[in-house]
Amino acid sequence: MSTNALAPTRRIALGLEYDGAAFRGWQSQPGGVGVQDALESALSTIGDGKIQVSCAGRTDAGVHATVQVIHFDTAAKRPDTAWVRGVNALLPDGVAVRWARVVPGDFHARFSAWGRHYRYLLINRPVRPALARGRAGWYHGPLDAEVMDQACAYLLGKHDFTAFRASECQAKSPIKILRQARVQRHGDWLIFDFWASAFLHHMVRNLVGSLVYVGNGKHPPAWIGEVLAARDRSLAAPTFAAAGLYLVGVDYEDRWGLPPTVAGELPDLFPGVCL
């Protein structure tokens, strides 16, 4: 029997980033192709025993994260550097641990979080991107960012987001509090920012798709509010591509003692483009 099995456990929180194009989403998958599979395998090796993790928010296939937070329990006594550099040495190139902290036993990466931040990067130009392939969405026709930003006002507050919810969503309630919805243009780039208590399955990608319908003139800004009020998924636009979506932050109370868990600007994703 491993001596770890007899030792008291500690709860460890990790902050990590990953390129979603390299995985079939966060959640463990048959064949071990989820981010969770890669992380648990590396942690179990460093911890000399099976380790299972819980995350702040499960991301779909093709969706990226600059700030994902997880926690796990282990009896292994390791320095923080082992949970960072040691684990990174065993992870595939598309995922990396950025920091590790010992946290109180009642901390939970998901249930202790009171907000999540998502950003969608969309290239808006006639020709498809090459360098940003898999890292940004693309729309070929002209889009009016100001009108799209106006439409965002109809989404703010506490609402039933059934109209922007995937049919396979397992959330107990479609009611969420959206604290921020914003669209900004930077040259050929459109930057969508969303901040909510939590998000439904495909919610951000469905919101982006409908905002594009406003931006291309298919519908006026008020249409977003009408779709929201109707609570009918069939009235909204199709789900937009996963490639441009990033989990960029998770909100926690200061008492947990975590490093910053909300990203600022993202200047390093694409050289020469300040996002």
Automatic annotation (TrEMBL):
It comes from the Bacteria. It is an enzyme of class 5 (isomerase). Keywords: Isomerase, tRNA processing. GO terms for biological process: tRNA pseudouridine synthesis. Signal peptide: none annotated. The active site is at residue 60. It catalyses: uridine(38/39/40) in tRNA = pseudouridine(38/39/40) in tRNA. Residues 17-111, 151-253 form the Pseudouridine synthase I TruA alpha/beta domain. InterPro entries: PsdUridine_synth_TruA, PsdUridine_synth_TruA_a/b_dom. Its EC number is 5.4.99.12. One of its GO terms (molecular function) is tRNA pseudouridine(38-40) synthase activity. Substrate binds at residue 118. Pfam families: PseudoU_synth_1. HAMAP family: TruA. Belongs to the tRNA pseudouridine synthase TruA family. Homodimer. Formation of pseudouridine at positions 38, 39 and 40 in the anticodon stem and loop of transfer RNAs. This is tRNA pseudouridine synthase A. It comes from Azospira inquinata. The lineage of its organism: Bacteria, Pseudomonadati, Pseudomonadota, Betaproteobacteria, Rhodocyclales.
